[in-house]
Write a structure and sequence with these properties.
CATH topology of the domain at 48-141: OB fold (Dihydrolipoamide Acetyltransferase, E2P)
Shape: globular
Structural class: mainly beta
Largest sheet: 5 strands, mixed, barrel
Strand content: 35-45%
C-alpha cells in the first residue's frame, strides 16, 4: 500500500511540473553566470540553463549575440526578480530579429559555455560568459494592467438625492 501511495504521489507531482520541453535536460548542479564569469576556462563545455532580461541584440553576418541581464530562474524556467550574477551573452547561429527579441523581453536559454568575451559597458570593460544556444524560450510579454476604475462618490442609490428611503414624500 505504501508503494502505491508513493507512486501516485510521484505521478501527481510530476504532473505539476510546468517547465517547457525546450528547457528540460540540464542538471540542477549547473554553474551560475557569476561563477563562469570568474573562471570561464574551468566551466568550458558545461551545459547550463540561464535566463534573464534582454539588454541588447547584435547581429553579425553568421550569428547573433544577445546580451542578457541574468536573473534567477523560477520553477517553470521563467526568469524571476532576483539577480543571478551579472550579464551573459547568448550566441545564436544565424539571424535573430531584434524587433522580436527586443530589450526588456525575458528569455531562457539552454546551451554550452564556450568561454568569455570582454565588452565595454560605458567605459568599464566587462567580461561576459558566452553560451552557445541549443534551445531557448522567449517568454510572452505580460498583459498590461487594466486601468484603475474611477469611482464616482455621487453615483449610486445610497448617494442619490432621489433615493426613496431618504425622502419619505417620494412614496
Amino acid at each position: 500500500m505504501r508503494v502505491f501511495v508513493a507512486l501516485i504521489t510521484t505521478l501527481l507531482l510530476a504532473g505539476c511540473a510546468n517547465m517547457p520541453e525546450a528547457l528540460q535536460g540540464v542538471p540542477e548542479s549547473a554553474p551560475m553566470p557569476a561563477a563562469v564569469r570568474a573562471d570561464p576556462d574551468a566551466f568550458a563545455g558545461e551545459r547550463v540553463r540561464w535566463g534573464g532580461r534582454i539588454v541588447e541584440v547584435e547581429n553579425t553576418s553568421g550569428e547573433t549575440r544577445i546580451a542578457v541581464l541574468a536573473r534567477a530562474l523560477q520553477g517553470g524556467g521563467r526568469p524571476g526578480d532576483t539577480t543571478a550574477g551579472g550579464r551573459f551573452l547568448a550566441r545564436f547561429e544565424g539571424f535573430v530579429d531584434p524587433a522580436e527579441y527586443a530589450a526588456g523581453r525575458e528569455i531562457t536559454v539552454v546551451g554550452e559555455v564556450v568561454g568569455a568575451e570582454t565588452r565595454r559597458i560605458g567605459d568599464y570593460p566587462y567580461r561576459y560568459p558566452v553560451v552557445a544556444v541549443e534551445r531557448h524560450v522567449l517568454w510572452a510579454e505580460p498583459a498590461p494592467a487594466p486601468p484603475p476604475r474611477y469611482y464616482d462618490p455621487w453615483y449610486g442609490p445610497y448617494y442619490s438625492p432621489f433615493y426613496p428611503h431618504r425622502y419619505p414624500w417620494y412614496y
